[in-house]
Amino acid sequence: MRFLAILCMLLVSSSYAGSQKVKVYRWIDAKGVVTFSEYRPQNSKYVELEIEGDRVLRGKKDGQSVEISINADKDDSMVDELNSQAKLYCDKAKHNLKVLDSYESVKVLDDKGNPKTLSQNDIAQQKRLANRQIELFCN
User: Do 28 and 35 form a contact (C-beta atoms < 8 A)?
Assistant: First the structure.
């Protein structure tokens, strides 16, 4: 009986772990660049998407629920767009992590386009960010 209870708990916990839902925000900036992020934009109109695994479940725009039907051509193009953006973010995050792990000194461009050497704390923060992006976009 105890074995059965443990087995049931494992099955429930594994099904819960595999069905994690993630919120992703999509917006278009002033230059027309479509951006997807797990962080809500501050100064842009956005669509909030709920994603489970490789499926977009639903979205919200201006607080109104937007149902997404996977069978519609328009929605298929949104899913394809999300998947292609996720692959780009995954590849960039993997590249960033490789660079951060490969060099002792890493330089980036600041907001004004001037080179800046990252401190060890900055590098650690960027590694955490890259790992989180890999976790989010590479699965």
Answer: yes
Inform me whether the pLDDT recorded for 4 exceeds 70: no
CA distances from 45 to 67, 72, 135 (A): 18, 24, 26
Share of the chain above pLDDT 70, in %: 69
Query: Alpha-carbon distance 82 to 97, whole Å?
Result: 22
36, 69 in Cβ contact below 8 A?
A: no
Please state the φ and ψ torsions of residue 5, each to the nearest 5 degrees: -65, -45
Q: Is the pLDDT of residue 3 over 50?
A: no
Residue 100 amino acid letter:
L
Contact 133, 89 (CB under 8 A): yes
